[in-house]
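WARN no homologs supplied; continuing
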Amino acid sequence: MEGAPLPTILTPKEEIKKSYEINQEGNNYKLNIKIINQEITLNILDEKDFMKEHEIKLTFDELKNLHKIFLTINSCQDFIDFINAIIENKKLLIKKNQENKMAIEIIVEYLYKQNIIKLDLNQNKMNFELIAQDLYQKIANINEICKNLEINNNQLIKENNILKQENQKLNDKNIKIEERIRIIEDENKNLINRINNLEMKMNSPNKEIINIKQNNSSNSIDFNSAIMEKNEFDMIHNAIKEKMNKKIKELKKLYQATKDGGKPYNFHKLCDGISNTLVLYKSAGNRRFGGFTSQSWKSQGERIPDKNCFLFSLDKKKIYHSNKFEIPFWENKGPTFCEKSIYVIELRGNALEKKNLRTNESGHKDIFNGDENALSEDGKFKGVLAEEYEVFQIIFE
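OK structure emitted
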């Protein structure tokens, strides 16, 4: 019909909401963004002042008039992507002047220069619906944190009970070891008494008996080790004499990880510059092994070949020789042994806290075989856990 009004065409309503938590110089703010079609509302909540809110409303056209960088923003999602980027790069700042008025400053790069776009916010009475929603969310978060803390606490209680049981087992093992030490010391005393009695029965000193007593010098060498027993030193004693062609006079303890600290710094402080050292390791699985080197320990990064070096297993009563052994010197590692640049025994970090005694050479895997984590599932060498290690200086006659 001529003159009739044209029908109204309704465009679909485009709406998006987004919130951000912003921490700036010790102040916590909540930025709420609401976009309905072409109108953008930016709302700032200062968590120190729950009774006030600050906001600004502007259209996409007004936004584009602020700066040319906004010319590419044509939709709600474009604007949200832009805000996400500047918040992630910490280019959105919230400013408050002496009159307690707020402004949003956006730092952008345009034409190779830094531009600051300032949006002044108006102060309104607080929207209590927003406060309630915010507080509800915080309470929900606190409840979730409490649940997680309760779960963690129960887990810690279980782990503590397991540690108590393991500690009791270790105490029992320690009692057995101390009993073995007492038996060995008694046997050693009996042996010395027998030799003395033989000497007394003879009218003159018997050189053969004296030589036997001198050759058995490992029994007369006094040392205090938390890992090796005195009767186990004979094997190592003979290997050192064969390598160095010298008689051992004394075994001097330089370092013990559980007493002096498990970090490489502690080891280097007490052992650097000292040659002819015996290193003893004890794993969490009670594997006992070690090595001897004639080289002096250092802190700088290099590896030095040592033809006198050898490894050993106290448990297997076996010496491991090789003409390819090297001693690596690193500031961030404890006493470490290599075979042709491959780390056989590697101690880094805090050996007792991180338990990272690494053993990587499959050619010597029988030293550690039987220890937990000693071998991986595919049979390749993986590593063992450290419980203790000591360093002794060998002093020759």
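The two ends are 126 Å apart (CA to CA).
OK
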